[in-house]
Structure formats: C-alpha cells, structure tokens
Specification:
By secondary structure, the chain is mostly helical. The chain is 65% helix and 0% strand. The protein has 16 helices and no strands.
Amino acid sequence: MFKQINDSNASFEMYTSSDRYKNDLSDVPTTQSVAGSTLPLVVHTRKKGSLDDNGYNPFEHRHVEHPTSDLETFVHLLKGSLGSGILAMPVAFANAGLWFGLIATFTVGTICTYCVHILVKCAHILSKRRRIPAMGFADIVEQAFLDGPAAINRWSRFMRFLVNAFLVLDLLGCCCIYLVFVSTNIKQVVDYYSDSDLNIRIYIILLVIPLIFMCLIRNLKFLTPFSFIANLLMFTGIAITLYYLFSELPPPESRPGVVNYQKWPIFFGTVIFALEGIGVVMSLENDMKTPNHFIGCPSVLNLGMGIVITMYSVVGFFGYLKYGDKTDSSITLNLPIEEKLAQSVKVMIAAAIFFTFTLQFYVPMSIIWKGIQHKIKEEQKNCVEYAVRVFLCILIGAIAVALPNLGPFISLIGAVCLSTLGLIIPAVVETVVYREEPGFGRFNWRLIKNITLMLFGVLGFITGTIVSITEFVAEFGSDTS
C-alpha cells in the first residue's frame, strides 16, 4: 500500500467520534486509513431525493462535532500517507531503473491523485443529487450505480460488496506483509547477536501468538497508546534511514536508467501499493470545516500528495542509487547490521509496524463481522466474534508462512486490490455520474480519458498479478529444491 502504515492520531479521533456518522447501510464504522491502504470511510443514511440538486448544498447539512481546518487536514493527510510503503520504494526502482523509476513514480502518483480528485468530485455531485450530506467509498460507488442507467441499477449492491471485498483483501494482505516485515527485521538482529539461524517462518509463527491476544482488543480507545508509540518510532526510523541513504552515494551513472520491461509490472504494483490511499481521502474531506478546499488548484489534496510523491521518489531514487542490485524488499534490511544505529532502526520500525498490526486488522474484521453477525444468536455473539478474530490471525500467519517473500507479495496486493480501487473504480464512477449531466465533453474526451484509465488499471492488474504469481512459483521451487 508497506502500503504505508497510515496510522495517525487522526484515525483515532475519527474512530472514537464515529457516532457522528452512523448508517444502517454502512459495512464499517467511520475510519481513516491506518496503513496506507484504502479503507472504508464516513457514511450517512441514504435519503431518497430528486436527482437534480435544487440548490441543495451538502456541506451545509454536515454536522461534524470537531471539524478540521485546512492545515489540520493537510497534516493528517501527510501522517496518513507517509508510512512503511516508503521503505519499499528503492526495490520498486530496482524493477524500473533509476531515471525511468523517477519519472514513472511521479507519473503514477499524479494519476493516483487525479483519480482521488475525480472520486471526490463525483461524491460532491452525488451528494447534491441524492441529498446526502457525506458519503464513504462504498457509498459513492453504490449511489453512482443507482444514479446511472436503469440497466446498471441492480448492480449497485454488488458493486458496494465488491469495493468492500477488495478493501478486506487489501487490508488482510497488508497484515501479512507487516508480519513478514517484522519477522525479517527481528531475524536480522537476532542472527547477528547469536549463533542461531532459524528460518524466517519460525519467527512469523512466534509473532502470531502475541498478535492473537492483541487482536482480541475490540475497543480502539485502548489502542491509542500503541498508535502514539508507533508514530514516534516510525518517523524516527525513517529519519535515520535517510541519513544512511545520503552518505557515500555512488554516481548516478553506476545504475541503469531503465531495466528490462519484464520487471516493470513489479514496479507498478509496488508503487501503487505504496502511493494509493484513496480510502483515506473521503474521511478527511468529510471532516473538514471547508470541504470545498480539499480539491481544486491549489488544494489540500494536491499540496499533500505533491509532498508525499516527492518524498517517495527521493527515498526510492537514493535508496536504489545507494544499494543498486543489492536493494532488498525493505530498505531497512540493507542498513549495516553491524552498526548499533542501524540496528536500532530495524528494531524501531519493526516495533512500529507490530503495534500498528491491530489497527490494520480492525477494519477488515469490522467489515466481516458486519456481514455475519445478524446470522448469530445474541448470546453467542461474543464467543463467535472472538473465534473469528483468532481464526483471522491464524489465517494471516499461515499466508505469511507460505509466502514470506515481501517483494512479489507487495506487488500482488497493489496489482489486484489497488489497481481496482484506485484506478478502475473512480473511472467507472465518473463515467456513470457524468453520463447525462454534465456529459462527456467535446469529442467525448472524458469518456476516452476514463476508458484509458480503466485500461491502465486492467493492464496493471493482469501483468502485476501474473508476474507476482510467477515469482511466488519460482520461490516455492527454490524452497523445495
């Protein structure tokens, strides 16, 4: 997303004040992204209204207890986007080349930002037409299909389910990535100070045990201290990592500017995973004091994502320049293991991700539980919920044990889930929303543009998935040989 650990204090403010936005159609409570990944967002009760706005201003009908200023939203956007995904950027550049990676990162980042822009714009249009003050990601997609031609109305609930399904896959995949990341960094440090050379899978299994107990915590209020610690450790670790990257750099001519195109799908999947955070934006926009400042030029979104894209590009460029073909799946694994400062980075970031696991776990668990709780007797709900939590933790651990290679795992999540959520879905939504009014524009330019975005997303989905699975097969082959 990795995918960025988008845990921030803002997420807890939104969680704890989730009673502001309750909806019987909502699959999850109000939330901000906690992992750089896309999360379900703020939702409101759907109202049956006329399809024309009749002067209806949704911003005037929002009742936010503690609205955020433009600056606060900007800070939350930065805190929510600058996470562990930044550590995977150097290996992304290794699959693109130094200069091609730099250009492509800015290009993909711009496209992702633009897709966020059109999703928010469509949310504003739908809010006026349907007289809904604020909507989340799944709500926008559902309302768009209800607002479109009669032939696609019946697909509205399915599209809502599809969005939430991809969100669950994305977030559970991120949990697997976190587990592998923590295990890999701890193994490096432990191996340096001992004669043991345990398989990485042993570390994963050992970490699953405490995580099971942590994931039994259902009230996010009790996880707030973990979020504070995780933020502090993450930002400190990234700052020290940058210190290592900028020391004794080789000349740019020592690295290939462009690598074999067959590696590009891995680059695409990794960058999409790291940069794509389309879920967080609706939560931030819905909480703003002046939501019309979120998009536009200049805007909170453009300024925030501009800084995020630049920082990701800098880390990717100089990380690959520093380590070349030896660049690992996380840049922390390239830091000199014999130095105490580098060891502290590995431990700090591993601890930060470990403490964030439960936050990442919370949202997919909420979506799943919302879908099954009505089928369970009231007196059995507590036991069943705890059983589901334990089962999901064990499932995450089993997947991580089976696929402990971070590189293709990150690419696979980015290609499958985030190509769909971040590129294809926004283009589909805009096509449906703009079909009648205001239309596709001269020469149908908006339709052509959206078809191009969809094809780009489908291409990334297919190629990224094929290459990632091929790498997984190769890894299993090497393990058994």
